[in-house]
C-alpha cells in the first residue's frame, strides 16, 4: 500500500511538476514589500474615479430610460382610455 502511494505521488510530480500559472510572467503585478510608488497611487485613484463616473453614467442612463418608458406608457394609456371611453 505504501509503495503504491509513493509511485502515485512520483508520477504526479513528474506529470504536473512543470506547470506554471503565469505568476512568474509579471513580477511587478504585486509588491510584497509594501512600498507603493506615488504614480501608482495617482493612477489607481484616477482609474477609480473613472470607474465611479462610468457607474454613475449607467445609473443616470437607466433612470432616463425608465422615465421615458413610463412617460410613453402614460401617454398610451391616456390616448387609449379617451379613445375607448368616447
UniProtKB/TrEMBL annotation:
Pfam families: DUF3511. This is Uncharacterized protein. The lineage of its organism: Eukaryota, Viridiplantae, Streptophyta, Embryophyta, Tracheophyta.
